[in-house]
Automatic annotation (TrEMBL):
GO terms for cellular component: membrane. The chain crosses the membrane at residues 30-54, 84-101, 113-135, 141-159, 166-187, 199-222, 292-315, 327-347, 354-377, 383-408, 420-441. Pfam families: Sugar_tr. It comes from the Eukaryota. Keywords: Membrane, Transmembrane, Transmembrane helix. It is a multi-pass membrane protein. It is found in: Membrane. Belongs to the major facilitator superfamily. Sugar transporter (TC 2.A.1.1) family. Residues 33-498 form the Major facilitator superfamily (MFS) profile domain. This is Major facilitator superfamily (MFS) profile domain-containing protein. GO terms for molecular function: carbohydrate:proton symporter activity.
Amino acid sequence: MFTSKTFLSTDDVMGISGQRNNGIRENWKCALICLGMAFATAQYGFDVAAIGTFQTMPGFLMTFGYRDPALKGGWGISTTDQQLIASFLNVGTIIGVFFITPFGRYFGRRHGIWMGTIVAFAGCATQIVATSVAALCVGRALMGASNAFFITFSNAYIVECTPPRLRAVCSAMFAVTINIGTILGAVVDERTSHIMGKLSYQIPLACLFIFPTLLSIFVFFIPESPRWLVLHDRHEEAEKSLIHLRGNSLEPEFLQEEFVEIIRGVEEEKSNATGSSMVDIFKGTNLRRTMLCVAVAVSRASSGVWVFLSYGTYFYQQAGVDDIFKISIYSMVVQLVGVTAGLYCAYKVWGRRTMLLIGTGSAVIAMVGPAIAAAVAPGTAQAARVFLAFNFFYVITYSGFAGSMTWPVSAEVVNSRLRVVTLSFATGVDYVFASFFWLFLPDMKGRSLEEIDELFEKQVPTRDFPTFECQSSSQAHDIALHKMEEAKVAVTQVESAT
């Protein structure tokens, strides 16, 4: 006959002692550490918001754009330069991904954050002193590379250090810190946008130094990931790290249980290793986990988030929305409310899968709504209001539900030994998709279908599509002129004969 002590809790049935699955109140210390680590992405939010708003600043356009009295504000910037400035952040992230895997093989998560801060300092300085689009793009690439280090190592650290019940909430803090960064970036831009000179954009860029500086100090006071330490056979340090992270949230027996579980998990992963880390992510059960990680990461680019992050302010202006800077700030505040609601739902109500389905479904609606309005009433105030309303809907539902869940899911679905490798690969794929059109899609405006066929057959580079002289059109022109001349001669001969 069973006594009351014999019955297992739901968590015990799942394989983990219920006492280890406690909440935020018991694990406040670990939650604060993870929140501090999550601020690694605040730089990313500030940077994207600031650069997106620069494209409507006269001071910025005076340096990197051109004067055009016909445009609102009297200054403009070429579409190519807009794309370069926005896309080189992604290009830099892709480049940074190639350095993350070898770096992560020998250095820990904290060292990865330190490396990110060094690259971020270089990127900030380069952008401030830049006087050409080319130099600015170099700075954008460096910022992208630092983001690659920040995103990968901070996400890996949080997932590896938090107890199971808090993993989704702590990882989803990335959505909060990114949002806080975008709000700060928009506020700073709003205060400097009226300065008619370089300081209008140099001041926001200088503010970017704040984030890597605080991070470089913060990581001095936190322990290394216990799983990474075990992976490198530093068991004594790993145990101290786990004790520091858990504090008084666990009794000694359950703390030892977690530590033993970590050791056994890492040893099993090592025994299953069959080759290099990069090859292993595509082998056996890891292939499924890699596909899930990549799919979740790529969902951020496919959701339309880059449209609102990189070009939101510009679209507000083109749609006829008044006071675009304040509207951007309001949108970000609404997004923060949505993310906060999403964190509560992740902690108390729904699982990861449900949250992702709700968020991605809402993104579809948010994209279709403005498109219909623009088709029915293009260039009208009504279309602008519809765009604004659906933007608010998007930032609440997508950012609060799907956007916040992509962080924990992408990191927890992979195993510890391959976590940094898989995350860096998924991040690279995500940013390739975000930059795909700039990198590969040529401009076919004004070209006939026959010219387009010729351009692809001759393997004309993407950037040369607008200027390449096609033989099909010139030959067709010559043939047409020849036929017209023949027709004129024939008419002349007929008239002469009559």
